[in-house]
Amino acid sequence: MNKIIFLLICVSFFSLNAFNTVSNVADYAQQFEEYPDSDNTDWAFPDFRGYFRSISQGFFSRWFEWLGLYTPYWSVKQFSTLLERVTEYRESQGLTGRFVQKIEPSSGEKYIIWGDLQGAFHSFARTIKFLKEQNIIDETLHIAPDYTFIFNGNAIDRSAYSLETLTIMLMLMDRNFEKVIYVRGYHEDKQQWHDETLSDELQGKAETLFSERIPFNTLVTRFFGTLPIALYLTQTSNAQTNVIHVSGFIDDKIGQNEEVNAFLASQTKEKVYLFKLDDIFEDKPQNEFTVNTNAFILAEDRFKSYRKTKGLVRMDNVDDIIAWSVFSSPISAHRILYEFFYDAFAIVTATNSIDSWTIQLVNRDVREAVSFKKQEAFFISSGEKVVF
Question: What is 37-75 written as a DSSP string?
Fold first, then answer.
């Protein structure tokens, strides 16, 4: 018995930084199959409840974890503790209700954007490993200067690993508060996830830990309530503010609103600034101003108008304004429904003039033993290719 306790203490000692590093994320991903079988054949709404039961944490491992004798690479307990800490901090910073945020980039800053990640945990693990190799993040998930991460909505559902995916995102948010923006999408908004895979996942992985019908329902709902409805990347010059509008919805949910425009045109010392949509913006610019939307980065309703993509696609214009969409989820459902096979993200690079800001896809084909590759870059406001 003493030997067992000693072994558990050793395991705990060597696992104290569970899921806190790029290496631990990669090790966890290797332990679980990337494409588990679904209990049904409806890939729009896959059912992984059988798989959740097969991998659920046993009684003794949960007991030893509760005693502090064992720390696995990932567990529901770790997820809930981290989720509560991040949620409480965000609420203390006023990030509640329906609000938008803006960032005023400096020339040379880069924004890494994932779109519709939808629980693609293994893909995400490969991507952050690559970002570490590029010195964009370090081993402990701290983001390098001049980089900001943007998760453009719909990071959950349709896979078996939404909780693990959220855990990495939460860790990044916890360690890089102003450098990680998680934009609310359709799946995060108004408890839409209740009718999706995340609800099954919480019940399958955490049902013995909580009394709610959907475990952690209240806490998860609170967290999603701290996410902005939209993010604006702005650049102001000569009383004109130009905007890149980033939204996890399929259209402009806000429109041309006088209060929002005043917020976008205002000058602030804060790097990341927020405005609650139900408020009146009182710090309006004293002089006349104009706000122009130069481009949208939106989600895409792939059931209605899917365009085959390798991760970045130019959509139909929105009110004669160019629109882009990023797709980052090579999960089983998307391999089958959309023939999508790519680890993918986009990089938006800011310059002194928003007309020369660029957007560039970085991807890799998961069917091949290849590394990530930068693809063609485009001027984000015009869609023209960048000639180097």
Answer: PPSSS-TTS---HHHHHHHPPPHHHHHHHHHTS---SS-
